[in-house]
Amino acid sequence: MGQIANNQNGLTWQFRESLRGGKSLSNEHTYRKNIKPGQPVEIVEKQNQRSGKTTTGEVQNILTSSQVHPRGIKVRLTTGQVGRVQRIVSE
Predict the structure, then answer these.
(1) Distance between CA 21 and CA 53 in Å, rounded?
(2) Residue 85: CA atoms inside 13 Å, Cβ hemisphere, count?
């Protein structure tokens, strides 16, 4: 998966290799407050968790009730697909 590191505040970050070859330091997709309906995101559907194949779409509604989820906030896209947010797409 990747390396684990701690920052000055004692927070743990996991460096993971992305499918595009870079390293992901951001965990913004794990906080419910960062996800809004209408926002473009990349999700991984349950059946694609092993392969890591992502789907890009627009958030219809947020399904995760907790404020934080370590594997990403679960959402439903406007297409009806359900999965965990892996990345918030910048417009």
Answers:
(1) 14
(2) 34
Between CA 88 and CA 39, with CA 15 as vertex, the angle to 5 degrees is 5
Nearest to 44 by CA among 21, 74, 15, 78: 74
pTM: 0.71
The predicted-structure confidence for 34-76, as pLDDT tens digits, reads as follows 999 999 999 999 999 999 999 999 999 999 999 999 999 999 9
**Residue 90's pLDDT band (cuts 50, 70, 90):** confident
Structure tokens at 6: 């701690």
53 close to 59: Cβ distance less than 8 angstroms: no
Structure tokens at 78: 């406007």
Distance CA 27, CA 63 (A): 18
- Rounded CA separation 17/34 (Å): 22
